[in-house]
Amino acid sequence: MKHRSAQSSRIFTAVVRQHRIIRPRYRLLTLELDAKGSAAFASVMPGQFVEIDAGPLSLPQDKDIPAELLDSAKRNIMLRRPFSFSAIRHKGNKFEIDISYHVVGPSTVRLTTLVPGDSLNLIGPLGNGFRIDQSRPIAVLIAGGMGAPPIQHLAAHLKSHHPDMRVTAFIGARSLDEIPFDIGTDPDGGIIFPAFSSVGVPHAMTTDDGSFGVKGFVTQLVEKLLVPGPFQTDKAILYACGPEPMLTAVSRLAAKIGVHCQLSMERMMACGIGLCQSCAIKTRDPQAEDGWSYRLCCKDGPVLDGKDVIFD
Amino acid sequence: MTEPNLSIEFAGLTLKNPVFTASGTCGYIDELAAFMDVSALGGFTTKSITLYPRKGNFTPRIVETDAGMLNAIGLANIGLDRFLREKVPLIAQYDTAVFVNVAGRTIDEYVAVTERLSQEKAIAGFELNISCPNVKKGGITFGTDPQQVETITQTVKKVAGAKPLMVKLTPTVTDITVTARAAIAGGADALSMVNTFTAMVIDIEARRPILANRTGGLSGPAIKPIAVYLVQRVYREVAKLAGIPILGMGGIRNASDAAEFLIAGATAVAVGTASFIRPDCCQSVLDGLHDYCRRHKIANIRDLTGTLQD
Question: Buried-most residue among A106, A127, A166, A310 (CB within 10 A)?
Answer without folding.
Answer: A127
